[in-house]
Amino acid sequence: MATENNNTPQEEQNAVDQLNSQLTSAGERIANNKKPLFWILGIIVLCAAFVIGYLFIYRNPRLNEAAEAYSKVEMQAMGNDSVAAGEYAKVADKYGSTDGGHHAALAAAESYYNLGQYQKALDYLNKFSTKEKVLGANAEVLKGDCYVNLKKYDDAISTFQSAIRKADGNPQIVPRVLLKEAVVFDEQKKYDKALECYETIKKDYPEFTLGNGVDIDAYIEREKARMGK
Asked: Any residues with CB less than 8 A from the CB of 119 and at least 6 apart, and which?
């Protein structure tokens, strides 16, 4: 049996108009939502293009230039600190944030230290950075040595302790740094602190040898004697 349609033509027209209005509204919402989406996609594309451009047009060539400049100084200086210091410093100043720049800063610091220019050595050590523990620890040791030569003993002790932390128990580095600490503590007449350094070496690094034919016990006894024990 057919369903009877009691709607008037006017009601049917109104229903059609309402449906068209809803569809039009939905279409407008979709179109409006596409606009911010296109903007977002456009920004992403621009950012990607910027990153790629930075890497291939600026960063990578700069890294290569820094490495080449560092290697060139190594070839030219050939262990001549008076030449090497200034040339490495130029590379470090120009390519500071690159690996080549960091290595040049450390090399400049070593050369300045060998020349007795301890403050300049410190300046370039402060420009050096590395994630490699052993290299980082040795750089801190050199920094501490600079402070010792500048008679900034508190700074030297603080830096040597930083080197020990960076060395993370390395048996070749830590006892050597403890010896340096002990010497500074003796200079400050802090014999109890020097004694602690020697006792730590004996306890934690029994395989370590001083290399001068003197046993670590002799140093321990010396500090005890200075303390009146």
From this structure: 146, 150
The model's pLDDT over 87-113, given as tens digits with 9 standing for 90+, comes to 888 888 888 677 778 888 998 999 999
Is the pLDDT at 13 greater than 80, yes or no? Answer: no
Task: Give the tens place of pLDDT for each residue, 45-88.
Answer: 555 544 454 344 444 555 566 566 566 656 666 667 888 888 88
- If you compute the radius of gyration of the chain from its CA atoms, what whole number of angstroms results? 35
- As a whole number of angstroms, the distance between CA 141 and CA 224 comes to 27
Decide if 166 contacts 137 (C-beta within 8 A): yes
